[in-house]
Design goal:
With 221 residues, the chain is an alpha/beta fold. It has helices spanning 2-5, 96-100, 108-117, 138-142, 144-155, 172-180, 195-201, 208-220; strands at residues 25-26, 34-35, 44-47, 55-56, 66-68, 71-72, 101-104, 126-128, 159-163, 184-188.
Length: 221
């Protein structure tokens, strides 16, 4: 039963968030509380109003200044994801909470456009997916990543993309136009070729076979 409940999820626990005192459980009148996720976890989406669309990078080992993350939290559920701990700042846990509570920055394009057009802004490459994957399942529902690409093409701002999802194939038309102007780099994260291992480490990502096929397709395009 447990295997079925957590199928497709990287984490199977909801560890305590050290930044908040409350704890979410399934409460019963008898006074016996259980873990919040006793049944199959369901993904929930939360809208966030942005003030700043560009996240500043100050790490000396990453050669970029700004990243844009349309979503916080990631349904891909990679067990090794470094972004898990940052989800605690939003009031969620770094385990199943990271995979099931996705924050959608619904006013991202409006804010990013204003920043691009500001007199203070210096045109430079931005990174899509500096924190969580911009082509995670939420993108199929909300389409924010495609709108960012459309905006970059419109204003002529270079953009780099890193993803583990072949949903990016949907946006090949925009990527070709950006590439013709030398405004885009696309990176695929492939750390193994074992599909069984993928199901454990990266449960909701595309297989390496599909990503390699898409690399070939993009290269030809």
């Amino acid at each position: 039963m447990e295997e079925d409940v957590f199928k497709g999820r990287g984490a199977r626990i909801s560890p305590k968030n050290p930044f908040i005192k409350r704890e979410e459980v399934a409460a019963f009148p008898e006074g016996i509380d259980e873990e919040k996720f006793s049944e199959r976890p369901v993904t929930r989406y939360y809208k966030e109003n942005l003030v700043n669309a560009l996240s500043k990078n100050d790490s000396p080992d990453l050669p970029l200044n700004y990243s844009v993350n349309p979503y916080q939290g990631c349904e891909h559920g990679c067990i090794y994801c470094y972004a898990r701990n940052s989800h605690q700042y939003w009031g969620f846990d770094a385990g199943l909470g990271f995979e099931t509570n996705i924050i959608v920055k619904h006013n991202l394009i409006e804010v990013l456009r204003k920043q691009f057009l500001s007199k203070k802004y210096i045109v430079q490459p931005i990174m899509l997916s500096g924190n969580t994957d911009c082509y995670q399942p939420a993108e199929k529902k909300f389409g924010l990543t495609r709108k960012v690409l459309e905006l970059c093409l419109q204003v002529g701002n270079p953009v780099s993309i890193i993803t583990k999802n072949t949903l990016i194939q949907r946006d090949q038309d925009l990527l070709v136009q950006l590439a013709q102007k030398r405004l885009v780099h696309v990176y695929f994260s492939i750390n193994h070729l074992d599909s069984a291992l993928k199901a454990v480490l990266e449960p909701r990502t595309a297989t390496a076979t599909k990503k390699l096929a898409l690399i070939r397709q993009f290269s030809q395009a």
